Amino acid sequence: MTSVQVDKQHDGSEAAEKAPEEGYQRGLGNRQIQMIAIGGAIGTGLFLGAGKAISMAGPSIILAYAIVGLVIFFIMRALGELLMYRPVSGSFSEYGREFLGPFIGFVTGWTYWLFWVVTGITEVTAAATYVQYWNKGIPQWAAALVFTVALFGINLISVKIFGELEFWFSMVKVTAIIGMILIGLGVITLGFSDAGDTASFANLWSHGGFFPKGIGGTLMTLQIVMFAFLAVELVGVTAGEATNPKKVLPKAINTVPWRIGLFYIGALIIILSVVSWTVFKPGVSPFVAAFQQIGLPAGAGIVNFVVLTAALSSANSGMYSTGRMLRDLALNGQGPKFFTRLSKNGLPTWGTGVSVAMMLFGVYINYQWPGEAFNYVVSFATISGMWAWIVILASQLRYRAKANRGELPQSEFKAPGSPYTSVFALAFIAMVIVMMGVDPDARISLYAAPVWALILGVGYLCIKRRDAANGLTAGTAQDAPAKSTEG
């Protein structure tokens, strides 16, 4: 359903009551949605990126994950309120278009598309490097090509196959973390393994205290921690294909607190108790370091397999979301019309195919010129991911205000504490962006944003000129079919 159709629906017209569905098949069940939600919060940011954060903050990184986890919960509950008001696959792009204007919807849709294209490039490339752990003779480009083609093929079959693959990808990550927690608890309480003599919860405060680098060190890790949670909002994109969105999505969103508590905070408490924080270094997985300290010879191989799974899961999610975002943009007159087409299985194959082509080109660029230019593009993914969160929160605030005035129906899944929680989350994100400007390593993320904003501004002006010539409002649906099929 496009934004124009929503306006008609709110007018109460007969046509609105018969407004067509988006055309997707609702093939994602409760089991798959739950695991997609869990997997979206567990990625390489935890398995690899946590090493740098630990070295910067020590045990206080646990507090950083707890604070950011709370903010993420506020964001997800804001998204949940919007999803129960109108569950669509365009998700935050659609909400931005409806509540903040067509330009914001345009920016959000294309920015989120680029976020997943860039993420897909980096994750497929990373997966190819992980394969070399077992066989260095496999060329990196060949492995990247095989992974990309295989995942693309899966995304062309049916949304149910996509959901099933994500279920098992997430299951691997969840099993690995739970296994690590249980082994670590055994080492701490029973004293077995090579780390048995030194493993203790006292490691959380015995080496320079809980804040060994001071409060400043902890604050500087907030940006790293925020990046680890990117893609948690992906569950919103599944709304148009969930079998029972108004029942399944609230359950998935309400699991956010215990997911963060168990998989992030719980895992870090155990790891930092088994191994002193002084052992961890940037670029080294804390899970690998913990396994080595315990003395499990297969530990490094296990973690490498889990990280490979996490990378493939992220790339798979990227292919899924890019096609839906491009189709949403096209349905609202903000993208090429051919992106509206669906396959016989209800899949946006044109949008997914173009996105995968971009990913393949990016893999080639990364292989040929893995220099600073590519790093600029990769770093942009972080700021673009947070833009989606900003739009979610701002849209929810506008929606709640309209609903309270009786202009829109109330959501069945209100965000608790709103508007205060949403305002707090927005202020927190603003603080993190300021800190990114202070940190030389993260500042690069902000340089690409104005360039992308300029490109989008020019693109939107072209759309306005085109629509003005056709007598339309900029960025509105141009009689694009809600459901199209191709042979």
TrEMBL record:
It is a multi-pass membrane protein. The keyword Kinase does not apply. Keywords: Amino-acid transport, Cell membrane, Membrane, Transmembrane, Transmembrane helix, Transport. Residues 1-23 are annotated as: Disordered. One of its GO terms (cellular component) is plasma membrane. GO terms for biological process: amino acid transport; transmembrane transport. The chain crosses the membrane at residues 35-54, 60-79, 99-121, 141-162, 174-195, 215-239, 260-280, 300-320, 347-367, 373-397, 418-438, 444-463. The keyword Repeat does not apply. InterPro entries: AA-permease/SLC12A_dom (IPR004841), Amino_acid_permease_CS (IPR004840). It is found in: Cell membrane. Residues 7-23 have a biased composition (Basic and acidic residues). Residues 33-468 form the Amino acid permease/ SLC12A domain. Belongs to the amino acid-polyamine-organocation (APC) superfamily. Amino acid transporter (AAT) (TC 2.A.3.1) family. This is Alanine glycine permease.
